Structures are given as structure tokens and as C-alpha cells.
């Protein structure tokens, strides 16, 4: 019982931590502007191209690509929200006030990933709505909407959990961001285009590739399926959170 | 009640705290003294569960810190005043602390008032002076109205008025029955407020006693001035412990005034001044921690000087 109460209090405190630093709001505002603009552009494009060849096409499908931008932005948010405690030394009071590190880990993960998922679903809906209002032929089908938002939750949720893990693992905002960009963008691109079979296989199992596969439904090779992409994302989230969590739980709380 | 038992901490091959055992009783201010690098901060960090002991235990109120359901109601501590997110306001910092331990938010304004930060509470910590950050850290320590308070070098960065204020705060807290442990590398800072001192050097316990006892045991010495101080020093060094106390001046421990005077007379050495010097805590501290200092400058041998670090 007391653990649950402590968890509840820690969630409330983590929420306050997240919303009382400027970097959170700067990132969210930039992300909202970017995704809104992209949604508006996608809608404009859809309205121009007259013939809607595929009858099943919806506004959700045209807005789906913004999910990649949401992923990058919210992973950055999760890295900053987790690692900044180490850069500022704030980890000392944090652990002094919440010495049960498992509780802190759970609360921080839930708050950062939870807020990110909600923001991601909201902004993706905005982008889809911007497409729908401009392109008459494209509707907001509830079924497609549910599956798109489900994918958003999965991609953003696993990406931000990975960001929390990286923040705890590197204990450095820059280190976490660089690692995240490497895993999501640079390595999949570079390794995936090298003439070495092993490296290309490795690239297929990086989270960046997994996200692209889930978002666009197809991967670098014909065999990669969206299910594989989901699995890749979840595995990276679990692995980095485990390693970062172990570092938090097992080692001294140095900056 | 703070209880430290066989506490040991290794950082790689460095033994920062070495089999330390002591208790801190309620209703007293206890000075936690030692030169820089002696292991004071590491001991406090282990008390707060921030560092994991290599062996031994550190408990507060009979439990390890992390086992308390609401630790801020048991132990208030200020370790490193600059370890605060600079982008939040002082008030927000304290609100977060209050949330974590289920402390009513009204308490935030009470402690802000007690440390004199009400006017600055709405400003970002970024703009605080070190003294203001110390006050903010003290406010956080007082937030849960805890029976045990730990302060690591709290006087750093405070101006004279701040130093006076913090001393009276310690006395008030002890008078309210709280256990107060205050670390410092300067004896003079602790001398005026502490009832007891726990002195460590190189991670080991050097003394754990009432202030008066420490002074009585180790501070007393004889000061003698002679134009032939060198010869006198050689002579006296056979019988007691001699240190230079300035040009032509010696401090002698372990001999009485009469013994020093008689010895000088027997060897025909002139004496211009001879007096017994009452022990000061500073001198006692120095003699106790001599040889326990990790880094020592060439000229750090006089008791009046700060311990080098
Ligand atoms: N995180 C750490 N890693 C390695 N060595 C450390 C660490 N923290 C402290 N030390 C070493 O432990 C010893 C005690 O340090 P500390 O507890 O800070 O002393 P004090 O607070 O008495 O000045 C010093 O030799 C210091 O260099
Ligand atoms: Mg220290």
C-alpha cells in the first residue's frame, strides 16, 4: 500500500517536474507547429491531386507520415526530461526525496511516455483533420483512425521509453540525444546502404528502421513486416529501459 | 537518532570511508569535522542512500533512509546547494519536494518565510546567489519538519549575516529536540554551535566527544619565545612535541611551563616569553587530524592555519 501511495506522489511530482521546465514547452510548441504545418501541406497536396485512386484511402493515411516527426520530437523530449537531472545535479534532491529508485523509475517512465503518447495522438489527429478539411474525398474513418492512433501510441510510447532508458544510461542530455539520433536516423541510413549483408541485417533491427516499417507498412526488404517493426521497437524500449534502470538502481547517484 | 556502524566505502582503490562507527544523539548539534577529502560528504551521502556502502550500515531512527515511507518527514538534508535545476523557481522546487512526500503545499510558504526567501521565491534559481541557494536547500531540509537534520558544509557562500543566521537556526533546531549534524572542514565554523564533535581523517574516526573534552585533551600547550629558538627546539624535542609558532617562537606540547623554563635555564638559553596557552578547538582539531590529511602544503604546520586540502 505504501508503495502505491509513494508511486502516486512521485507521479504527481514527476508531472510537475516535466511541465515546469522551459525546454519541455519549447519542444512541444516547435513540434506542434511542425506537425500542424506538415498536416496542412499534406492536405493541400491531397486537394490538388484530384483522382482518389484507392477508394479506401482516408485522411489518416495522408497524415500518417507525421508520426515520424512526432517520434523524433518526443524522443528528444524524453531524453531531455530524463537526463537533465544529471546535468543540473538535480538528481541529488530527486533521490533524496524519492529514495526508492524503482518507484522513481516507474513514475518517470509513466509520466514521460504517457504525456508523449497523448501529445502524439492529439497532434496526429490534428494533422489528419487538416487533411480532411482540405481534401473533400478523404474522410476521418473511425476504424482507420483507431489503428493509426494505436500505431502512434506504440511508436511514440516505445520510442520515449527508449529515450528514458538512454537518459538514465548515459546520464547526459547530449549523450542521450546523440545516441537516440544515431539509433533512429543515422545508423539505419548508413548501415542500411552499405554493401555488407551483416550490416544491412543489423540496420533492419534498429529502432529507426522499425519505426519506418510501422509507419509506412513496408521495410527495406520485402520480407520485413509491420509486425516485425513493432517487435523491434518494443525490444529496444525494453532493453534500454532495463539497462538504464539497472544503472539507476545499482549505482551511486553521481551527476 | 543517527547511527553509523562499521561504515566503509571504496571508490575503486580509494577507501573514502573506513570502518566508521558513531552515533548522533537528539537535541544536540554535532559538528562533523575533517579536512577536505576526509569522507564527510560520502558518509552523509550513504546516510541518505545516495551512495551504496561497501560494507556497514547507516541508519536514521533505526531504519535505512530509503525504508522510510516519507523520508522528508524523518530527515532533512542539504548536501550540495547548487544541485538544483536552474530553470525552476525556488517555490516550484519546494512544491515538487512537497509533492513527493505528501506534504501540504501551505508548508512551502512557511519554510520560504523561515529562511527569508519569500521575496525571491518566484524567481528562477538561475539568478540566485550561492547564499540564496543555501537558503533554498535549508528550506527544503525543513519542509517535512523532520527530527533529524544533516547539513554538508552549509556555511559555504554565506555572508556574515547569513552565517549568524544559520548558527542560530542550528541552535533553535537542537533546542526543539532535533538531531543536527553539521559538517565542516573548518573547526572555527563549528566551534560556536556544536555540543559535540565527530572528527574524521582519511575516512577513519579520530574523535567523537563533547567539545570541551576534545579541547581539554589535546589543545593545551606552552608557548615560548627565545632568540635561540632553534637550539631550544632541539633541546625540548627530546622531551615533548615542538612546533614552530612564528619567528623565534615555539609551541611545546607535553611539558609544563616550569619544565620548559628549567630546561632552558640549565642549558643557558635565554627565554623572553613563556606562557601556557589554553587549548582551542582549532588546535585540538589540528593535532588530532595531523597525519590524517590527504594533501598538505609545506607551510600548513601551524595550528592557527586552516587545514589544507
Ligand atoms: N564519486 C566519487 N568517485 C571517486 N572518488 C570519490 C567520489 N566521491 C568522493 N571520492 C573520494 O573520496 C574521498 C572522500 O571524499 P568526500 O567524502 O567528498 O570528502 P569530504 O566531504 O570530507 O571533503 C576523497 O578522496 C574523494 O576524492
Ligand atoms: Mg565534502
TrEMBL record, chain A:
Keywords: Membrane, Transmembrane, Transmembrane helix. The keyword 4Fe-4S does not apply. The chain crosses the membrane at residues 25-44, 64-84, 105-132, 152-169, 176-196, 231-249. It comes from the Bacteria. This is ABC transporter permease. It comes from Phycicoccus flavus.
Amino acid at each position: 500500500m505504501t508503495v502505491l501511495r509513494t508511486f502516486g506522489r512521485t507521479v504527481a511530482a514527476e508531472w510537475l517536474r516535466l511541465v515546469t521546465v522551459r525546454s519541455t514547452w519549447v519542444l512541444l510548441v516547435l513540434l506542434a507547429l511542425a506537425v500542424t504545418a506538415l498536416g496542412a501541406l499534406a492536405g493541400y497536396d491531397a486537394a490538388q491531386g484530384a483522382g482518389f485512386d484507392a477508394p479506401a484511402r482516408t485522411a489518416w493515411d495522408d497524415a500518417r507520415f507525421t508520426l515520424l516527426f512526432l517520434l523524433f520530437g518526443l524522443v528528444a523530449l524524453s531524453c531531455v526530461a530524463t537526463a537533465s537531472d544529471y546535468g543540473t545535479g538535480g538528481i541529488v534532491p530527486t533521490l533524496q526525496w524519492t529514495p526508492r529508485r524503482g518507484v522513481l523509475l516507474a513514475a518517470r517512465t509513466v509520466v514521460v511516455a504517457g504525456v508523449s503518447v497523448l501529445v502524439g495522438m492529439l497532434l496526429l489527429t490534428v494533422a489528419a483533420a487538416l487533411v480532411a478539411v482540405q481534401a473533400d474525398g478523404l474522410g476521418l474513418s473511425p476504424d482507420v483512425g483507431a489503428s493509426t492512433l494505436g500505431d502512434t501510441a506504440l511508436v511514440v510510447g516505445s520510442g520515449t521509453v527508449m529515450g528514458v532508458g538512454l537518459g538514465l544510461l548515459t546520464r547526459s542530455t547530449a549523450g542521450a540525444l546523440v545516441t537516440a539520433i544515431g539509433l533512429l536516423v543515422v545508423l539505419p541510413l548508413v548501415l542500411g546502404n552499405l554493401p555488407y549483408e551483416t550490416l544491412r541485417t543489423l540496420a533492419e533491427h534498429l529502432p529507426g528502421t522499425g519505426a519506418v516499417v510501422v509507419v509506412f507498412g513496408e521495410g527495406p526488404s520485402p520480407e520485413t513486416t509491420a509486425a516485425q517493426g513493432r517487435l523491434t521497437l518494443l525490444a529496444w524500449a525494453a532493453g534500454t529501459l532495463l539497462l538504464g534502470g539497472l544503472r539507476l538502481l545499482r549505482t551511486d547517484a553521481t551527476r | 537518532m543517527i547511527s553509523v556502524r562499521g561504515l566503509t566505502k571504496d571508490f575503486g582503490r580509494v577507501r573514502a570511508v573506513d570502518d566508521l562507527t558513531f552515533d548522533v544523539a537528539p537535541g544536540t548539534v554535532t559538528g562533523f569535522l575533517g579536512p577536505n577529502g576526509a569522507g564527510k560528504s560520502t558518509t552523509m551521502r550513504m546516510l541518505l542512500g545516495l551512495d551504496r556502502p561497501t560494507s556497514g550500515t547507516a541508519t536514521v531512527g533505526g531504519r535505512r533512509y530509503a525504508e522510510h515511507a516519507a523520508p522528508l518527514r524523518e530527515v532533512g538534508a542539504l548536501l550540495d546547494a547548487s544541485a538544483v535545476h536552474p530553470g525552476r523557481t525556488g517555490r516550484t522546487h519546494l512544491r515538487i519536494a512537497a509533492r513527493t512526500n505528501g506534504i501540504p503545499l501551505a508548508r512551502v510558504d512557511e519554510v520560504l518565510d523561515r529562511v527569508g526567501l519569500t521575496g525571491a521565491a518566484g524567481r528562477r534559481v538561475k539568478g540566485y546567489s550561492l547564499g540564496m541557494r543555501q537558503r533554498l536547500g535549508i528550506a527544503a531540509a525543513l519542509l517535512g519538519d523532520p527530527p533529524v537534520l544533516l547539513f554538508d558544509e552549509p556555511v559555504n557562500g554565506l555572508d556574515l549575516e547569513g552565517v549568524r543566521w544559520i548558527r542560530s537556526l542550528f541552535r533553535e533546531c537542537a533546542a526543539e529536540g532535533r538531531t543536527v549534524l553539521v559538517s565542516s572542514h573548518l573547526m572555527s565554523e563549528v566551534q560556536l554551535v556544536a555540543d559535540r564533535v565527530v572528527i574524521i581523517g582519511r575516512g577513519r574516526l579520530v574523535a567523537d566527544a563533547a567539545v570541551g573534552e576534545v579541547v581539554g585533551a589535546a589543545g593545551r600547550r606552552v608557548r615560548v619565545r627565545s632568540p635561540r629558538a632553534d637550539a631550544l627546539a632541539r633541546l625540548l624535542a627530546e622531551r615533548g612535541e615542538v612546533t614552530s609558532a612564528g619567528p623565534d617562537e615555539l609551541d611545546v606540547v607535553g611539558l609544563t611551563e616550569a619544565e620548559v623554563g628549567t630546561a632552558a635555564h640549565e642549558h643557558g638559553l635565554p627565554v623572553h616569553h613563556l606562557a601556557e596557552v589554553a587549548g582551542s578547538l582549532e588546535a585540538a582539531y589540528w593535532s588530532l587530524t595531523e597525519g590524517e590529511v590527504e594533501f598538505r602544503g609545506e607551510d600548513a604546520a601551524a595550528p592557527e592555519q586552516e587545514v589544507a586540502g
